Amino acid sequence: MKPKLAAYIEQLLPTIDDLKPDRIAILDQLVTYCQSKLQSGQELNLTFICTHNSRRSHFSQIWAQVAAHYYGFDRVKTFSGGTATTAFNERAVAALERTGMDIENPGGENPRYQVHYSDRAKPMEAYSKTFDEAPNPKTNFCAVMTCSSADADCPVVFGADGRVALLYVDPKESDGTDAELATYDERCLQIATELFYVWRKVKAELAN
After folding, report:
1. Nearest-CA neighbor of 192 among 65, 4, 72?
2. What would the pLDDT profile of 189-201 be if each residue is shown by its tens digit?
């Protein structure tokens, strides 16, 4: 991991044990899906979906990949998409940079950011797209719904063989306020902590 990112992760790991039972119950649905795929030797694809693919779904996709890499699951593939296309919000990008990730912005209306989290892994390409748009998988993936609007608007995600409603409050509510930076950092940390819980538990279950 990048040195600053490694320090950030070491600080969040002890807080995993503070997760509330209601959140653990939801996260365990994702644990079960991932464990089943890995035990059977199948391809494991996770697609995180929110309305605009601008904040929560990107946080989730990136942290899921980082956590999988941290625990040694390098064949896992994570994706994200929305019900509409906008752009990866610059506030969310900045929050990830504050954790220690190196992120390159090539510019444009919908930049294809390059997210570097480890010198031992390829950078992730992060940009806004619809959930059914390439390179997102068409079949054999878990649709992880990260906002209530997308969850309601997509009662069926065609091609998905799993679905989990892992809903988060939109940090957008703080845009333009004094709480903006703190809100984005809080949501980023929440999502990171929960997805590290998922991969820590998957690793423990597979070791048994």
Report:
1. 65
2. 999 999 999 999 9
